[in-house]
Specification:
By secondary structure, the protein is of the alpha+beta class. The chain contains 8 helices and 17 strands. The structure holds pyridoxal-5'-phosphate.
Length: 356
């Protein structure tokens, strides 16, 4: 370990929440990591302190122009009680891509790795152990310079907070009812849709609100140019099992390169499936469904792992996928990934990284 950060421990440890009622992102642990940036010192002053408020000037650029980025990864409790993180290296690599796109100064990868490891170690008693639970790790960077001209900040805060989480959806892994959005878009080629930044999310709130008010759980996003091709489902990558082959949209600049997506592709290949990273037209999904050839639809992401889709509605026409039930491919993938997370299944890909 290259960096050893000072730790100020809380004098008031919190009562830990009931593991059966965690939900997603509702509770935060006792500590957080904070690191500052300014032009003179670069990134400096890394420290672990009690979880608490960040105090910023109202003119801080993040409040006005949204210059920020975030990541999301998970730590799991294993039987030997040594905490592990799933593919931390890949998440940190992706964080660097967001920094580049958002004009945020580069942070040394090793510093982020050491910060994540040390913070999780300090709060390791917060890693829940119940089935389906984990400790969600949320690194993020915000622009702090108090200046209202539109442009990149000269100062930043990088922080990491931790949240014990259960299943992302309140319904557990009950199949989602999905609304195909034909008016609004999530991402456009040339925009920041391929990195994790707040702007991508705020942009989706109105269409998601519309869809949930109509009773759907999620929005299926189509491409910005032609509104023809499937891009993602909510904040998760989309998969379709058609004629026994697995289709997923390619990473061509508009789809977020999910690490669960990458893991899913690897595991599905291990299972012997043929994976097609190809554009899929929603019209073709409907046509193939009518011919009885669409076996499963599901989405993948760190927060959901694998989330089945039970119904899709496009232009007022609803189709039911696999009788509205989670299908065998999604189930096997979910079990395999969860097994690797918890240690019940051997990690043959070097994805499990014990904290140092
Ligand atoms: C985070 C995210 C995903 C999933 O990425 P993972 O690395 O698997 O968690 C997919 N789509 C969007 C838009 C996301 O923000």
């Amino acid at each position: 370990m290259k960096y050893q950060f000072p730790v100020i421990r809380t004098m008031n440890p919190k009562v830990k929440p009931d593991e059966s009622k965690l939900g997603f992102g509702n509770y935060f642990t006792d500590h957080m990591f904070v690191l500052d940036y300014n032009a003179e010192q670069g990134w400096h002053g890394g420290r672990i302190v009690p979880y608490g408020k960040l105090v910023l000037p109202p003119a801080a650029r993040v409040f006005h122009y949204g210059q920020e980025m975030f990541e999301g990864m998970k730590a799991y409790r294993r039987e030997n009680d040594i905490p592990v993180i799933f593919r931390a290296d890949k998440h940190i690599e992706r964080a660097q891509d967001a920094n580049v796109r958002m004009c945020i100064p580069d942070i040394e990868t090793e510093l982020i790795v050491d910060a994540v490891n040390q913070l999780v170690d300090v709060d390791k008693d917060w890693i829940p152990s119940a089935e389906g639970t984990a400790l969600y790790i949320r690194p993020f960077i915000i622009a702090t310079e108090p200046k209202l001209s539109v442009g990149p900040s000269v100062s930043y805060i990088f922080a990491i907070i931790l949240s014990p989480v259960g299943s992302y959806y309140d319904e557990g892994i009950a199949p989602a009812s999905v609304y195909v959005e034909t008016e609004y878009i999530r991402s456009v080629l040339g925009g920041p849709g391929y990195v994790k930044v707040g702007a991508n999310c705020a942009n989706t709130f109105l269409p998601v609100k519309n869809a949930t008010s109509m009773g759907y759980n999620q929005v299926l996003w189509l491409d910005a140019k032609s509104r023809k091709y499937v891009e993602e489902i909510g904040n998760a990558n989309a998969f379709f099992v058609i004629d026994g082959e697995v289709f997923t949209p390619p990473l061509a600049g508009t789809v977020l390169p999910g690490i669960t997506r990458d893991s899913a592709i690897t595991l599905l290949r291990d299972f012997g499936y043929y994976i097609r990273e190809e554009q899929i037209a929603i019209e073709d999904i409907y046509r193939l469904h009518a011919e009885g050839r669409v076996q499963e639809v599901f989405s993948t992401g760190t927060s959901v792992t694998v989330s089945p889709v039970g119904k899709i509605t496009w232009k007022d026409k609803e189709i039911v996928i696999n009788n509205g039930e989670m299908g065998p491919v999604a189930k096997r993938l979910y079990n395999e990934l969860s097994g690797i997370h918890t240690g019940k299944i051997e990690d043959t890909h070097g994805w499990i990284q014990p904290i140092k």
